Amino acid sequence: MSVTVKVPAKVNLQLGVGPLRDDGYHDLVNVFHAVSLFDEVTVTPGPLAVTVAGASVEGVPTGPDNLAAKAVVRLAGHLGRAPEASVHIEKAIPVAGGMAGGSADAAAALLACARLWEADVPLPVLMDLAADLGSDVPFALLGGTAVGLGRGERLTPLSCEGEFHWVFALADGGLSTPAVFAECDRLRAAFEAEAGWPHESPDLLAALASGDAKALGAALTNDLQPAALSLRPSLGRTLAAGREFGALGELVSGSGPTCAFLAADAEHAAELAAALAEAGVARALAAATGPVPGAHVLS
Fold this sequence. Notes:
The protein is α+β, with helices and mostly antiparallel strands. It contains 10 helices and 12 strands.
């Protein structure tokens, strides 16, 4: 018997970063949006092991440090049983790209193992277990569009009308999320910029509720973007190219280095991807739509 779960990537439509807390985290306002780039995670009975395949999987751990492996152990501990599951990850979500690929795989492993072990684990319990694993893991279970508060794990679904079209410019190599947050703190200290308490953008929420792509593009924000650009200056050229070629809005996704561009429709997304490819500002390009559902069982 095996169980396969399909799980989406995310883009952060708004990422507001508050002051550094005593526990080392930041209070966030994080508007998540699930998009149609998917990993597939398959679990089968057997000793705990992780294998990974797909494009650009260099650097993905296959030992106990893999977040999907940690998810298996966490769920098994909750159920009081041995973590007996072999995990295979087929990756399409960029690795260390700011699109929560590792978190998505952890969410998928939780859901897949619950089904494999025939355990009746209610979604709220899975969400709590997911939050123990990482700030982005609960949203990968939920999907759609939602605002996350706290570390990003306290989720409230948002109204989102229609479908939005995206182009993602994938960069060579990744960016460490802790390093980007540390650079954000360093830049704020260097410029004596006090981090205020972040709040949801009314313009962003209104654009989502009405399905207005142009208004959404104008409302995209990411407080981590200056830090990502500081660590990877070449991303500035990528973002500038997207603006030049008519993107409705652009930003670094999460901690980067993937850059996200909002298009008016599918035809515009195809034209934008072709122009960015011609400009040579990305390792690869991917078109996607959102919102899409969270992790769900295929077989």
